[in-house]
Amino acid sequence: xxxxxxxxxxxxxxxxxxxxxxxxxxxxxxxxxxxxxxxxxxxxxxxxxxxxxxxxxxxxxxxxxxxxxxxxxxxxxxxxxxxxxxxxxxxxxxxxxxxxxxxxxxxxxxxxxxxxxxxxxxxxxxxxxxxxxxxxxxxxxxxxxxxxxxxxxxxxxxxxxxxxxxxxxxxxxxxxxxxxxxxxxxxxxxxxxxxxxxxxxxxxxxxxxxxxxxxxxxxxxxxxxxxxxxxxxxxxxxxxxxxxxxxxxxx
Length: 251
Prior knowledge:
By secondary structure, this protein is mainly alpha-helical. It has two domains: 13-97, Arc Repressor Mutant, subunit A; 106-250, GntR ligand-binding domain-like (Four Helix Bundle (Hemerythrin (Met), subunit A), Up-down Bundle), CATH 1.20.120.530. It is built from ten helices and two strands. It has helices spanning 29-43, 55-62, 66-78, 100-113, 118-138, 143-158, 164-177, 182-199, 206-224, 228-250, and strands spanning 82-85, 91-94. A two-stranded antiparallel ribbon has the order 1-2. α7 packs antiparallel against α8. The longest helix has 23 residues, at 228-250. The radius of gyration is 20 Å and the shape is elongated. Mean pLDDT is 87; it is low at 1-14. This is DNA-binding transcriptional regulator, FadR family.
C-alpha cells in the first residue's frame, strides 16, 4: 500500500510552468491531454510523492472537461504512474519510481525502439493515410468498394478487444488498397507494420478505441459520399490522435 506522508509538500496548482500544459486541439482531447500529462511526469516536474495540480486547474489549462480529465487520470493510475487519495489532503499523487520488474520491462521497450524513428513513422503514416482517403473519395462510386469498406468498418465495430488491432489494420489497409495506387498500398503496408510494433508497446485504452471508432465511421462515410477534402481531414485527425498517444507513452 502506498504511504504518502502529509508532510510531503503538495505542488500548488500554479507551480507548473505556464508552457507545459496548453489547451488541446478539437478532435483528440483525451489523447492530447494524456500526452501532455505524461510529459509532465517524464520531465519530473512533480516529484515522486508530490501532488498534481487540482482537477479543476488541470481541466482548465488543458481545455477539457472534468470527465475527460478523470478518464486520463484513470489511465495513469492503471499504468501505476499515479495514485488517488480522498479526503482533506487528497488528490492525485505521483507514485515512486517503478520497481525492478517494471524497470526491466521499460529496458526491453527501449531496446525494441532503439532502431525506430517514431516521428518518421508517424509523419509517413499521416501522409499515406490522408492521401489514400482523398484518392478513395475522389473515385466514382463502386458497389464492390462500398461493400468492402462497410464490411471492414463493421469488423472493427464487432471485434473483441483482443482482435481489435487486427480489424483496425484491415480497415486501413483496405483504404490504401482501394486508393488505386499499388505503390501507395505497398508503402502503407510497410509503415503499418512499423506502427503496429509501436502500438504493441502501449496499452489498449477503451476511451481511445471508442473515439477511433467514431473517426472510422466518419472517414468511411466521407469516402463513400465522395467528399475528398473531408476524408483527408478526418484521416489526418485520426492519425494525430494515435500520434499523441504514442508520443505520450514512448518518447
